[in-house]
Amino acid sequence: MSSMAYSTALDSSPPSGEAVYGRMASEGLDTSHGAILYLDDISVSFDGFKALNKLSLSIDVGELRCVIGPNGAGKTTMMDVITGKTRPDEGTAFFGQTIDLARLSEAQIAQAGIGRKFQKPTIFEQHTVFENLELAMKSDKRVRRTLFARLSSEARDRIAAMLERVGLAGAAERVAGLLSHGQKQWLEIGMLLMQEPRLLLLDEPVAGMSDDETERTAELFLTLAGKHSLVVVEHDMAFIARIARKVTVLHEGSVLAEGPHEQVQADARVIEVYLGR
Ligand code: ADP
Ligand code: MG
Fold it and tell me: Using CB atoms within 10 A as the burial measure, which of 51, 117, 148, 199 is most buried?
């Protein structure tokens, strides 16, 4: 288990005397122009093949954006660029107005407030649900250093609130490995949220979920939007219609169409390369 969401290589000591509990580096993020993420003319080549080809994208603070497109369109590569896993050959990526993502390591990007959920849940299967959230919270060094000795009841309250939020309040003492597929996904989302990301990237979060789990995930995402900014890659168009205000369609490494989901779903080019298949 090595998801970057839990890495803490950036050691930024908090200002002395200030309560650090729950405070993240991202609180200093400059979003005065309204956007939290700007990708500008990003290109990535793998052996001459352009996985991303002058991709430009802007995500507003608190927005819930869905990204769709055929296999190989570059959706995962886009997330790899945002999280620093892949470095672009050309173009710029900014988090807020001032943070140039090219200058940060993967761990520093996570610490700055970008969380990522991969398709496969990366939870601690042998631990309880409660312990998983506790571990996720402790992986923030600043919290671990200052919090646990004296604020454990506050920490417990925070975990209890998160259990409630992700619909796992009744499953706190269950071993995570025994949860349903959907519950595991919610647990991992809860673990990411313990780190209070400003921007959350989710790759196919409802794949394999039952209809009921998909609906509960839609409700969860709608409560997260506003407080967080979310970029969701999905293929489930009913789910997208339920949650998204704006949809971006990627094709061959760049934006083919962008707009309200009704408009995108009716776009002849989108039907040709993706929805009509
Ligand atoms: P999507 O997530 O939209 O299905 P990807 O971003 O995974 O698309 O892939 C875009 C293209 O880049 C695909 O053709 C894929 O084969 C290629 N690609 C992705 N990662 C690598 C890599 N590490 N090495 C070589 N080719 C890659
Ligand atoms: Mg992908």
Answer: 199
> Does the pLDDT at position 246 exceed 90?
yes
Nearest to 176 by CA among 218, 230, 136, 216: 136
**Rg of the chain over all Cα atoms, to the nearest angstrom:** 19
CATH of 3-275, one of 3.30.750.24, 3.40.50.300, 3.30.43.10, 3.40.640.10: 3.40.50.300
Give residue 203 CA to ligand 2 midpoint distance, Å: 7
Which of 47, 53, 67, 76 has the most ligand 1 atoms within 8 A of CB, as the residue to mutate? 76
pLDDT, tens digit (0-9, with 9 covering 90-100), for 176-211: 999 999 999 999 999 999 999 999 999 999 999 999
Instruction: Say which ligand is closest to the CA of 119.
Output: 2
- Region of 131 (left: φ > 0; alpha: ψ -120 to 50; beta: rest) is alpha
What is the distance in A from the centroid of ligand 1 to the CA of 180? 30
Per-residue pLDDT reduced to its tens digit, 49-72? 999 999 999 999 999 999 999 999
Helix, strand and coil in the chain, % to nearest 5: 40, 25, 35
